[in-house]
Amino acid sequence: MINWTSLETVFLDMDGTLLDLHFDNHFWLEHLPRRYAERNGMHAEKARDKIISMIMAQRGTLNFYCTDYWSEQLALDITGLKSELSDRIGYRPHVADFLQSLKKAGLQSVIVTNCHPDPLELKLQRTGLDRYVDGIVSSHQLGKPKEDTAFWQDLQQLAPYRAASTLMVDDSFPVLESARSAGIAQCLGILAPDSKRAASKSHPEIPCVHHFDEVLTAIHQQRPHHQKSPLPSDD
Fold first, then answer.
1. What InterPro entries does the annotation carry (predicted)?
2. In a 3-state reduction of DSSP, which class is residue 108?
């Protein structure tokens, strides 16, 4: 599925890949519409329809992920509202074992996320995820989302890499397709990003897994283990 022997760098999406996408889905589809409805004297379902329509109009752009943009558009403190649900922020299954395996294998791990810096900080405070990877880059630092193929060239400024020896792991097929178009050698899709929802269908050309336990054996077999790094459990 993945040739781990050829890799030097593993780029990792955060939401839906390392962290359970349930937090974000619940926020945008349930919590935010409810708060917006309360603020504007609307029925929650009508507020939800309006917000989803606005969000989908920005799909594939940096605004889609921008907390500042949505705070302005909706006249609400998006980061503050997200903090109300911070207890829902958590790891996906087997993430600890996976990140530990990457370190033991001597691979550089870098989170490459479309998450805005404000909710990113909230999630890092809640999970301590930044302690277990070699770096974190938000697309907001580069002014374009991962769906833009130009993002990957600009990424060299913040996280230098060799495309031929790099793997990108993400739950978004458009992002993975963008990475492939930009020359990233290998991609891996995540089919079960939200613990409360059914898994997605596989991509016809990109290898996919439901959870990281499906690749642990291959990493152990293909890469020498020479480094230990204690990580939090998935309990």
1. HAD-like_hydrolase_sf, HAD-like_sf, HAD-SF_hydro_IA, HAD_sf
2. strand
